[in-house]
Known about the structure:
Blueprint (H helix, E strand, L loop, with lengths): L4 E4 L8 E7 L3 H9 L10 E6 L5 E10 L10 E7 L2 H13 L3 E2 L4 H8 L5 H12 L3 H11 L2 H25 L5 H24 L3 H7 L1 E6 L6 H9 L17 E7 L2 E7 L9 H15 L3 E6 L16 E4 L17 E3 L5 H19 L10 H19 L5 H16 L8 H9 L6
Parallel strand pairs: 1-6, 7-9, 7-10, 10-11, 11-12
Antiparallel strand pairs: 1-2, 2-5, 3-4, 4-5, 8-9
Helix pairs in contact: 4-5, 5-8, 6-7, 6-13, 7-12, 12-13
Bound molecules: guanosine-5'-triphosphate and magnesium ion (MG).
Amino acid sequence: xSDTIYALATAPGRAALAxxxxxxxxxxxxLSEMTGRPPSSARTLSLRDxxxxxxxxxxxxxxxxxxxxxxxxxxxxxxLHLHGGAAVVAATAEALAAQGxxxxxxxxFTRRAFTNGRLSLAEAEGIADLIDSETxxxxxxxxxxxxxxxxxxxxxxxxxxxEALALLEAAVDFPDEDLPADLAAGAAAALQALDADLExxxxxxxxxxxxxxxxxxxxxxxNAGKSSLxxxxxxxxxxxxxxxxxxTRDVIEADISLNGYLVRIADTAGLRETDxxxxxxxxxxxxxxxxxxxxxxxLTDETFHVEQAPEVGPADWWILTxxxxxxxxxxxxxxxxxxxxxxxxxxxxxRVAADLAQHVSTQLSGGEFPAITRARHRDxxxxxxxxLARALAGFGQAPxxxxxxxxxxxxxLERLSGRIDSEAVLDRVFGAxxxxx
Length: 437
Ligand SMILES: Nc1nc2c(ncn2[C@@H]2O[C@H](COP(=O)(O)OP(=O)(O)OP(=O)(O)O)[C@@H](O)[C@H]2O)c(=O)[nH]1
Ligand SMILES: [Mg+2]
């Protein structure tokens, strides 16, 4: 049996209201004692005087309770809707502690909901993502995940595995018939289709890009105007701009919202060979960041020649800077996304931003709910695919062994829901929540 926990569910600080939530077996008793009478029926707000054990008035509050298991945590839950003053909250918290209530750890309410089977781990992650959402698309994805969209995708894959397993088990059961070869072929086809699905899902960064931000790298030679463009794009003088080549050393990131998508833009060190150890480290970080980006914008000024940029990929965009000074000479790159602009001119830069918004929307929208919205899902899928590869390699041998690897694959996929995960994984997921959630 768990103890009774409490936490401030709203943000700390002065506000109109502050909500303190309790969960656990003593929550109703504590409510009765603090209000001096039994609570009214569940799920009904009532105005009550809240008092500590010495009878001192703490607040006139709206209180409500939920009877477990029909509550967020699955236990009896109480909410105290207080006036949002720091002294009221502190005094109420003190009174709750005196009643034997314990201050909750980060994510403890949601963890109880998970433990009591009210939520899968993926749904719990959806709640955390919703609270952290800053853009419309982040919240839309989080809402779908907390409504079970991710679990649904995984359970379809599991269903496919169970079907293949049934065929394999039939093959084991009828060793003397003609049937087994057909059965095995049917199972192999189903598993190959699943493997192709998993490969495609692992190759996709859509869900992570929506959640963590679509990464756009500004790269190019020193002095090209990367930091100038970064400042104009983000509307802040966050990066130092000077005529000195090699001004930027660190990767400087800033988030902007385009069409409701979070876009993380990075200004990077100018790429060049250098003996300066600090700058060389900057160049290494620039390349690493650009490699993981969803899009690279290559900047260059009039000193540039196409053959100096062997690293530019076909999907990258070109930005030819210092157009106000005449810009690059005859040796221009070709491709669909080429801009000539003055990096300090907001109107010209806004045209790039508009195309970026369009590009990000096209890349990240549409299709099924993504199979991966964070690294944990990628780990689960990779492990499942490893087990599946063993199963596929086992065809032609004893069907019992193949069946065992199929079972392991299904088990690996089950880790998405968290039911068979280790405490360490659960600690990590719930530890990232805020207190009170
Ligand atoms: N005329 C003109 N000058 C520009 C333009 N963009 C940048 N500059 C100037 O070029 C110099 C270098 O600009 P930065 O933005 O620091 O260039 P960078 O690519 O970040 O350079 P590093 O950090 O050294 O790699 C500064 O003096 C800027 O004012 C432009 O479009 N037109
Ligand atoms: Mg710079």
